Amino acid sequence: MADGAMTATFLAVIGGASLLAVTARRLTAVPGLAYGNGAPAFFAVPYTVIVSPLAFVLLSRLWTVARRHGYITAADFVRGRYGSPPLALVVALTGILATMPYLALQLLGIRAVLTAGGVSSRGATGDLVMVALFAGLAVATYRHGLRAPTVIAALKAVAVFVSLTAVTWLVLDRLGGPGPVFDGAARRLGGTDTAHSALLLTPAQQPAYATLALGSALALLMYPHVLTAGFAADGPRTLRKTAVALPAWTGLLALFGFLGIAALAAGVRAPAGGAEAAVPMLVDRLMPGPLAGLVFGAITVGALVPASVMSIAAATSFVRNVYVEYVHPTATPKRQVRIARAVSLTAKVGAVAFVFGLRDQDAVNLQLLGGVWILQIFPAVAVGLVTGRLHPRALLAGWGAGMVAGTFLVVREGFSSIVPFATGRPPLEIYAGLAALLLNLIVAVVGTAALERLGVPRGADTTDLPSRLTVRRRPETGANNP
């Protein structure tokens, strides 16, 4: 296949699947967080609202540059914007590194379903079921690329929507409406009623809630599978329409969180360290076997579709920005496709081995770190779409500072992404990824000023974007200019 045709085919099939993959894990993760922590879980609601204007501006602008220059990864854009292969390399590797634990978490969703369905997630039967599911996924994506998940992505979205609606209606019917649900959950969380329980944020929790929502929204748009979806759209207009529609998912995310609250009210006892199993266990308790099986099938498909998209997006980044750039610059398109298939397969096998070899909490911890890590490429990618004034060496220094600081903060707090930043009573708690990003930006700006003063040259910008933000002004109206 010719290079142009290969790229066009790849872009055509990835778009729909990638955009839908964003919300696949929510069916177990968000309600699991609500089940264990109450109100803080609902950061996912404003987070989706924040993503919408960011996607509206950034993805449409990125698409224009990518289509003009043939980019299909974020590192491609960074390479062209700053003329810096090392900066493009760290962007690609950071995306791959952050994607791997995200991929492994899809398996945890399947494991939660198996637990609720009565299959021991730690026994041979549970292991064989997960291996079989991912083996089928690996074969499908190895042979057909993203055509396989694209075909079932729409079906997955419908299945998740119908399942969510049905379970929510059943919960309200069985438990007596929203009031009894929230009152029952409040008592399970140690409160006397909804107003005096963990179902409402305290003033001390509000900074953490706000910064987590903002930081998560910024991080989401940096993941390889999401950015690749931006490259795959028909045009900026399509991306803007999609971005405008994103807040519609806010209601669904709120319902996901509500199911975690309902699991508390219904007296569901999730296994220790396995809060993501709460909703599958609730479904198993409230629904007849055949209907529960359909819902479990929707959750499983909702995990497999994004897993395939993530693995292929990571493989594409590796081939384009690592293999071709540093290992085999003359690789033919056919060889690139073959290597990408092998890397995608390796990523899936690695995710399975990772989940089997480590505790579930280890996967969650690495996912928390992954969110902090992926946020550190925001200056190079997102800020680079607005201005090219930052020096690539300063961006590299900022990236390194943000990675080290973010990792230190999360590990120091026992793998908590919320860290204290004051000695008051109570201390100010904020999202570690956002704090690391702030340090990243400060280092990049100060470093740029120092490097410019020293006259250190920078690489050539081949993107045709302005070097600084420009504001278009409307022509003045008057007698000579009606």
* Most strands sheet: 2 strands, antiparallel
pLDDT below 50 for ≥5 consecutive residues: which ranges? 1-24
Number of continuous helical runs: 19
Strand order of the largest sheet: 1-2
Counting helices, strands and paired strands, the structural category is mainly alpha
SSE order, one letter for each helix or strand: HHHHHHHHHHHHHHHHHHEEH
Mean pLDDT: 78
Shape: globular
Radius of gyration, CA atoms, in whole angstroms: 23 Å
Number of strands: 2
- Which range does the strand content fall in? under 5%
* N- and C-termini, Cα separation: 55 Å
Fraction of helical residues: over 70%
What does it look like?
- With 482 residues, the protein is mostly helical.
- Helices cover 73% and strands 1% of the residues.
- It has 19 helices and two strands.
- Strands 1-2 form a two-stranded antiparallel ribbon.
- Strand 1 (418-420) and strand 2 form a beta hairpin.
- Helix 8 packs across helix 12 and helix 12 (248-265) crosses helix 13.
- It is globular.
- Residues 1-24 have low confidence and may be disordered.
Short précis:
With 482 residues, this protein is mainly α. Helix content is 73%, strand content 1%.
